[in-house]
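Schema walk-through. Below, the input block comes first and the output block second. Nothing else is stored per chain. Lengths vary across the set, and this one has 289 residues.
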Amino acid sequence: MHYEGNIIRPPSEANSILLQITVGCSRNQCTFCGTYQGERFRIKPDEVILEDIRFAAAHCRRQRRVFLCDGDALIVPQGRLLRILDEIRSHLPWVTRVGTYANAKSLRLKSPEDLKELRARGLGILYMGLESGDEVTLKAIRKGAGPEDMIAAGRKARQAGFKLSITVLLGIAGRERSLVHARETGRVLSAIDPDYVGALSLMLIPGTPLYEDHRAGCFPLLEPAEMLAELKTMIAETCLSQGLFHANHASNYLPIAARLPKDKTAVLELIDRALAGNIALKPEFMRRL
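--- output ---
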């Protein structure tokens, strides 16, 4: 396989065929993210992508899923993306689902008909980084979209028939706006009603603008108890029809997996027990991105 630069994928795609069709991220301005620093976004040549698909056909016959890398493969022009999906279906007929990252911009550029066509060709799940539902925080981290943009994008994906997984970041608003961030994120998640929500805890990456702000004393990192209080408020404010809200990423202090609304009361009680010191939190040296 022809991999270039940093390759990232969601934890749930750990056993998927990782097919890199773009290099980098079409946005690449978020203050907390150092994944694609110095990387110019580009779409890989069709012949390279096809060669990788043929490699997967010969050597990846046990994997049942494909994940299209990198940061925002949905931005690929519709015709090229359809051809890639057709090649996957032709050469990897045993694959049951294709997934990729998406953002508000790429979803805005695709018409509802475009998305439904992609869904019909095998693209089954989209992963979208919301990070926060607070407009002030989204502007501060240079996300490039506001809360209503995020709601529109998420609803558009859901209406086209995609499974939708949304990532949010605990601690991204700092201390002053922590609970505003939690409440507004719950509001936006409720408005979108995704299938999955993954809450990660902020870990600063050297070289990023947010890391430099922290070093300069302009951005405080939350203490573990503050992170948990933020998570509690976020879950309390989130109303999903049948979505899975999980905070079991390696960066989190307290592993949580809750089906909402069924498990909401139980998970809020679990967080209260942790805040009271009755449940041990993950030690700092075990936290990872």
